[in-house]
Structure formats: C-alpha cells, structure tokens
Amino acid sequence: MKTLTTEKRKEYAGPALHTFFNICQVWGLNNYQMQNLLGLSTESTFYNWKKNPAQVSLGNDVLERLSYIFGIYKALQILLPNPTIADSWINLPSNHPLFNGKKPIDRMLSGQVADLYEVRRYLDAERGGW
Q: Residue 24 contacts by C-beta under 8 Å, 6 or more apart in sequence?
C-alpha cells in the first residue's frame, strides 16, 4: 500500500471512518469490536474518532485495515446479492478451513492485519478474482 502524506490521511479520515461505522452498524458490531478492527488499544482514541472523524489523521496501518474491511464488505455484496444475507455472513459459523467452524468475524477480530487480509483474500477467491 502506498504511503500517504499527512494531509491525504486527514482528508480521507472523515469519509473512511464514516463508511467504516456504517458497515459496522449493518454487521451488528459493538464498540469493542469496532475498536479492535481498527487496531486501537485505547477507548478514548476510538471514541474521539467516532465523535470527530473529520478531525483525525489516520495512520497508514489503519488505512490498510479499512481497505481490507471495505473490500470484505464489497465482496460480500457481490457474492451474496441479498443484503440481509451478505450482512450476516461474518456472524455465521463456517466450516471452511480458514475459519475452522468459527465465525469469520472471530478471525477478523484476532487483532492482526493479516487476518483481515486472509478473509478478504478468501472472498476474492470465491468471486474468482484471486
């Protein structure tokens, strides 16, 4: 992923966080889960971002996480054209070896960027795009 300037990271922050919070709402995630997906260790930072997304300058690591989350959401909308089914997929157990009988959200919440990448890669492969 290309490293962005501070100005660009701040410019993208508001729309990116707004999109993120909307996706998390339809996925039924709580604040703790959202904080985890963003890779944040402090609640105060999370709540500040949630309250004032346009005032944030996101780090490249957070932008990378958001990119994977947006890709997961988009892939699900393509693979499962029924929005209700697409939005519930991450919360349903899967027997695929990547998930080992657990829910995809459990893998995504491991705290590792690599797990977001793996879920996105799996969905891209299911779409035939990998």
A: 33, 34, 37
% helix, strand, coil for the chain, step of 5: 70, 0, 30
Q: What tokens appear for 122 in the block?
A: 């799996």
Helices (H) and strands (E) in the chain, counts: 7, 0
Return the residue matching tokens 């402090």: 42
H or E stretch including 64? helix 60-79
Query: What does the pLDDT look like over 37-64, one tens digit per residue?
Result: 999 999 999 999 999 988 888 988 999 9
Residue with tokens 């709402």: 25
Euclidean distance between CA atoms 7 and 122, whole angstroms = 33
